[in-house]
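User: Good morning. I'm curious how glycine would be positioned relative to this chain. Could you predict the structure with it bound?
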Amino acid sequence: MTKITAKSSLIVFCMIILIFSSSCTRRKQIAVSSGDEYASRAALKIMKQGGTVVDAFITANLILTITEPGASGIGGGFLAVYYDAKKSQFFSIDARETQASRHQDFAKLKPELNSENWADSKAAIGIPGEAAGMDLLHQEFGTMKLEDLIDPAIEIAEEGFVASDYFVKAHKKFNMPIQAKAGDRIISEDYAKTLELLKENGLMSFYDGEIAEAIENYSEGWINREDLSLYRAFFRRPLKFSWKNSQNQKYYFLSVGLPSAGPLIIKQFLRGFNSAEYSKSLTEQVKEYRKAIGPALEWRHEHAADPDFRKQDCKPDPVFRDRGTSHISLYDSYGNILSATMTIQRPFGHQKKLPGYGFYLNNELTDFSSDLLACNSFADHKIQRLSAKYRTNNEEVAYMVEDFKRPLSSMSPMIIFGPDSEFLVTGGTGGWTIFSSVLETSLEIVEKKKDPQSAIDDVRFYTANNRDIYYDGDLSEAELKELETNLSSESVSLKKFPVPAAVNILHFKDKELNAYKDSRKGGFAIKDTML
Ligand code: GLY
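Assistant: Good morning! Here's the predicted structure, ligand included:
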């Protein structure tokens, strides 16, 4: 039986991490896994020049804005967990996009607003958090000069990058304008100008200079300059918990808490499943997955939201779609670890670039739902259409959108420490599928002892409601038959649903640090050693 310990001791965590860090830094191994080759290579180069994971993250993140524009960028936000080796301390960073000050005006949109056109609306653009999050990390933990971290991105923007197959396919899939073929060079002059501005005036100038003015103008005031100047990224308490696998080996999980429900779902899942059964067969795996994910999702639907706002009390929100997210896992020669997941919400976010500045804006506020009776929904929209039963209950309005509230996320950047100095730096992309991807690949490694690449490549199961189970990957005819026969009594519908939910993993075991990519979504992993 598995066992989870809610009370986690910071001292124990830190002692364990110290042992891990020293065993890895003796050989000064460094590694990165991200969604894109340019970003991974540039991050590795920064670390080879003596930069930290934080320095490398900033460079990679600024590059991803143009090389993987469908998945993240400075028009979006991120959540991250960071281990600082010198301080022996963990930090969780919340640079999530935020509702601006005009949520009351959603009422004016009511006649037009529905779940389809809402995604395109300028009212769905959240205040971007990326620049502030990178600034916070850099102020606290950066070691290199900001200009040296921005320059590699400027070089790529000015001189161009070679469009990959995945880059071209992603644009076509989501009907985004693209003339280039795979192999063509893409130059991003407008974005180079944006980067020069940030280099000259600092990352926080995103919120009060000409970029802020352009956002106010483009968004038609849905985000105004005062909203932007008030935006802050901040540190939150990291989420920590431990769990024992069926061989009684203890693993320590470090991640982010609300406003992401993802890691909390993983924590609840591990509390409620039998890992020995899970490993027995495909049928048992899916049965245990269902058994444990059900209560975890129920908790999410009932209670999860931005913790800085009023008590939540929600109804289920069974939305299951592709998302614009990107993940990066980093380990540097000082023993620092960073796991960050970035998002602009829908693929390519708002799907229009900020005119003249060369980056896509997000449409993250659709992570508040526009669905009737859904969790984190829109007050005015909702109140008007709800049945009397709900309208008369004042508590029901407590979970609505509010000014400066951050929408609920599934992002699950995570660091997992195990016995014999083993550790994983992991996280994934794909909206609702994130917590399942991170959980299942981790279990393949720490419970089933598979090598991380097979764990990533293996078939994965997902659900948003515990009835419709989707799988991504190839099941043989025999496996499919086995599942359908064994699950038929449980009223489960099993459907193939390929989702570009990539997991980017670093794994340290037997004194060796390795980096793994997920080819579902491009992906590039690289490692090196330093003297
Ligand atoms: N936009 C995806 C997420 O925050 O989970």
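The radius of gyration is 22 Å. DSSP finds 18 helices and 19 strands in the chain.
Let me know if you'd like a different ligand tried.
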